[in-house]
Amino acid sequence: MSEAKSDIGLVGLAVMGQNLALNIADHDFRISVYNRTTSKTDAFVSENQDTPGGLFGAQSIEEFVQSIKRPRKIIILVQAGRATDAVIEGLLPLLDLDDIIIDGGNALWTDTIRREKDLNEKGFRFVGSGVSGGEEGARFGPSLMPGGKESAWEELKPIWEAIAAKVDAETGKPIEGAAPGRPVTGGVTCTTYIGENGAGHYVKMIHNGIEYGDMQMICEAYALMGKLLGMDPKEMSTVFSDWNQGVLDSFLIEITADILQQRDPATGQPFVDVVLDTAGQKGTGKWTSVNALDMGIPAPSIAEAVFARFLSAIKEERVEASKIIQPVFDAFDGDKSAFIEAIHDALYCSKICSYAQGFQLMRAAQKEYEWKLDFGAISMIFRGGCIIRAAFLQKIYEAYQRDSNLANLLLDPYFNGEIDRCQSNWRKVVAAAAQSGIAIPTFMSSLAYYDSYRSERLPANLLQGQRDYFGAHTYERVDQERGKSFHIDWPDPNRPQIDA
Ligand code: 2AM
């Protein structure tokens, strides 16, 4: 048994758990750790003897709980779903009233709402916190999105603020340079209280949905450069590096440039050329899209990114189809460097639409769940630590500073101007891809989203006619007030027809 009690505890020593525990210990907090398979605990503690705060490896859940200062703060980082419930169940008989459980996993926000309610009723506190940034982020500074009772957040705040990523207050640029035992200091911390119950996990889910969109959009730019312009990975890498100096400056563009210049150690070929073209998914992009459908909020760019992964996954079927369905291919004969610039602009505009959709979802969800989300603060904590970190988020932050009630990012003067400046290139790329048979689903559906959103009149008038025809669903009129319904007796042989 340890002598000094720990400031916090953590259950679940998989990759994220280990890295987050080391990050906490680096910031001078003593942390107790526990894992169901205790050999993992022993190995982890013996490999990390010299942390500033100190680690205590507990052999049993009882010893673990006893080793933590009250009111206890216990982070759970196990597989989201049943494992989280199992760990909570195991902890409950050992806790004291007012102790705080923090779920740092990728929980479905409705599970978090359920767990928080249940634990509150039993006299405990519960924080559902999104943790983004992968292994590296967890170790040296993640973006943290906590939701729950504010009193629980206040207790967690000093630790969460210490371990989160830091960005420069003026520019929003991530402050780099953290190393084991040497965390970064200064700057603005990438965590803030998000809202009640499941708000933190909801925002984390939207972050992941946006991430799906970003990744697919970069892949579409890569497809255009390779298939249409015939560029090799090394050449593309240079382009992505250039793009990383401008408005697209982001973690995902940066790592794309790196990946494209990687050689396969086994064959010496470009690494991307030997990687199978099938993508998996763990569910958060799907959850975002299902939630968009449930709430009736258009988020086609994000949903297309999920569907693109599903299409990639049916590799064998695609191989067969490619033998049966003849390709169309118009070779490119324009100005290559101008077209590269056009791809840049298409990616940029599509990205703006995808972020607009993500923020639309948060706006709708806050009404549904009675949260008070601060979109400026949310874009601020996305600037560092997380996978979608990007210079661009500074502009979103500024947009919400200008108008915290902004109905859609597309209406902000800056973003409206940017799309206006770039849209002719965006349309060029979509047209060329359509002509040449190259699939760029998120570029295309983002453009359709943009053109639909800015349309005063859409063809849904005809749709109302169809619904009234076959189902007597009635229709509304342009010359009458909203909500008043009309019906025609279809098919009516004597109905007045428009003259031919
Ligand atoms: P393990 O090492 O004993 O498998 C990611 O899978 C993490 O979640 C691991 O630390 C794993 O513990 C833990 N985990 C998964 N299911 C669990 C459960 N039902 N109870 C406790 N921990 C669990």
Structure, described:
With 500 residues, the chain is an alpha/beta fold. The chain has 3 domains: 8-197, Rossmann fold, CATH 3.40.50.720; 202-453, N-(1-d-carboxylethyl)-l-norvaline Dehydrogenase, domain 2; 457-500, Single alpha-helices involved in coiled-coils or other helix-helix interfaces (Up-down Bundle), CATH 1.20.5.320. It has helices spanning 15-26, 38-47, 61-66, 82-91, 109-121, 134-140, 150-163, 199-228, 233-243, 251-260, 271-274, 284-295, 300-313, 315-324, 336-369, 375-381, 392-402, 413-436, 441-453, 460-471, and strands at residues 8-11, 31-34, 55-57, 73-76, 100-103, 125-132, 143-148, 166-167, 188-189. The protein has a 7-stranded mixed β-sheet with strand order 3-2-1-4-5-6-7, with helices on both faces. It has a two-stranded antiparallel ribbon with strand order 8-9. Helix 1 packs parallel to helix 6 (134-140). The protein is globular and about 95 Å long. Bound molecules: adenosine-2'-monophosphate. The site of adenosine-2'-monophosphate has 13 residues, from helix 4.
Which key phrases capture this entry?
seven-stranded mixed beta sheet; N-(1-d-carboxylethyl)-l-norvaline Dehydrogenase, domain 2; Single alpha-helices involved in coiled-coils or other helix-helix interfaces; binds adenosine-2'-monophosphate; single chain; alpha/beta; Rossmann fold; two-stranded antiparallel ribbon; globular; 20 helices
